[in-house]
Design goal:
This protein is mainly alpha-helical. It has 17 helices and 3 strands.
């Protein structure tokens, strides 16, 4: 009987994800704020129904009281996050708030299924990150001096990356994290933000050829340190973000085309110089040639996605734990296997909706400093989503980056909260100006 309930529930979860996605894009179709708010209200209703259904299945399968208590704690958090944000900030972007909750909800559901202890740790980090970063919109709205300290951002970022290069621990062939007081974190996740602020402040001051050369040299230093640390996923995010910000600031196609050419050449060179890069490329080109070793992770991911098909196996009906590092880099494969390809597609579309909102905020900003910040953070977000999904589905070689708000990882959660709350600050700033002068 339970298997029948699980089998039926997966169709409802896909339906709820599809309805949520519909509301997500309806928000952009409406012009009146009242209509936008109705779409967001629909999102919230669907979010909590989906959440209750998923945890109902998890409880029925495990028969553990701690799962029910965990569900209640999440409901309280989501309600507080949604409505306290509105209470603190009159003009908050509700669609971004809702999407943060939905993506986090999906992440907690799949992590609870995979590893309950890690799900609890992820939830604690979510709560702490949300409350710690709640003041960011207030700061963004009031501190214009953020545009006056470019070299603080640039030098701080380089120093943090150098510390990881020298003292960082090696994880899966790359130096990614450092440990302080028993707490391990990944500095590059936070340097992503300081990097965007550095580039934005430099190009806000000037886009002369000399300024472009200086900024490019500093950006290249960030990328080279990441390459030396073998954090190639991070290096690619930094490189593409800088290239896009440079193009937006200068509107110079020569910079864009030249940069893409240099990037392609650098990728080919990295594949020849670094053994672990060559191994990943080889596993990407033909994972079946070494299915028990270098190709094991990607082949298991493809088996999981193929087994799940469009409608999924249902929670606890698949075998996602066969995939190495499934809670982090390959969580999308676990979602595809048990929740289905249609659900996974909805998840991608929701991420795309977040990106659209970030770019719309960038487009609305008058000051180039704020425009570049919003655009840069938006590019970082969507590139990370692309690298994660592309690596899991064998569209591109695996780069070892996480899916924001969904994958397990404290540094990723906190840094993404900072990014989204910076965007919220810019959105609130713009809406306050419109209300004051409109």
């Amino acid at each position: 009987m339970l298997n029948i309930i699980i089998d039926v529930s997966k169709y409802f979860m896909i339906l709820f994800a599809a309805i949520y996605t519909y509301y997500n894009f309806s928000y952009f179709r409406y012009s009146e704020m009242e209509e936008k708010h109705r779409a967001c209200a629909g999102q919230i209703r669907v979010l909590f129904v989906f959440h209750a259904l998923a945890y109902g299945i998890l409880y029925l399968k495990t028969q553990e009281l701690r799962v029910a208590v965990f569900y209640v704690a999440q409901v309280v958090f989501f309600l507080l996050y949604i409505y306290l944000f509105r209470l603190l900030y009159k003009h908050v972007s509700r669609v971004l708030v809702n999407n943060v909750c939905f993506l986090s909800c999906v992440g907690l559901v799949i992590l609870t299924r995979l590893n309950f202890d890690r799900a609890v740790r992820q939830f604690v980090i979510l709560v702490l990150s949300a409350f710690v970063t709640w003041l960011i919109p207030f700061v963004i709205d009031r501190v214009w001096q953020l545009s006056k300290i470019p070299w603080v951002y640039g030098i701080a970022g380089v120093v943090l990356l150098l510390v990881v290069l020298v003292l960082g621990s090696i994880t899966y062939g790359a130096q990614l994290s450092i440990e302080i007081g028993g707490i391990r974190f990944q500095p590059s996740e936070f340097v992503k933000i300081s990097f965007v602020f550095f580039v934005a402040t430099m190009f806000y001051r000037s886009t002369s050829f000399r300024q472009v050369c200086i900024t490019t040299a500093m950006a290249a230093l960030h990328v080279l340190i990441l390459i030396a640390s073998r954090d190639l996923g991070g290096a690619l995010i930094f490189f593409l973000t800088y290239l896009c910000m440079l193009f937006v600031a200068t509107d110079n196609w020569g910079y864009l085309v030249g940069g893409l050419g240099i990037g392609a050449g650098g990728a080919l060179l990295a594949a020849k110089l670094f053994t672990h890069v060559a191994v990943r490329v080889s596993a990407w080109l033909n994972p079946w040639a070494d299915i028990d070793n270098t190709g094991y992770q990607i082949t298991q991911s493809l088996f999981a996605i193929g087994t799940g098909g469009w409608f999924g196996m249902g929670l606890y009906q698949g075998m996602p734990k066969r995939i190495p590092v499934v809670e982090k880099d390959f969580v999308f494969a676990a979602i595809s296997e048990e929740m289905g390809g249609l659900f996974a597609l909805c998840l991608i579309l929701i991420c795309l909706g977040c990106f659209l909102q970030l770019i719309l905020v960038a487009n609305q900003m008058q000051a180039m400093f704020y425009k570049l910040i919003a655009f840069g953070l938006g590019i970082e977000y969507i590139v990370q989503v692309f690298l994660t999904v592309g690596g899991v589905t064998k569209f591109i070689p695996s780069t070892g980056v996480t899916l924001p708000f969904v994958s397990y990882g404290g540094s990723s959660v906190l840094s993404t909260f900072i990014m989204f709350h910076v965007i919220q600050g810019l959105y609130i700033l713009k809406r306050n100006e419109e209300e004051e002068f409109g």
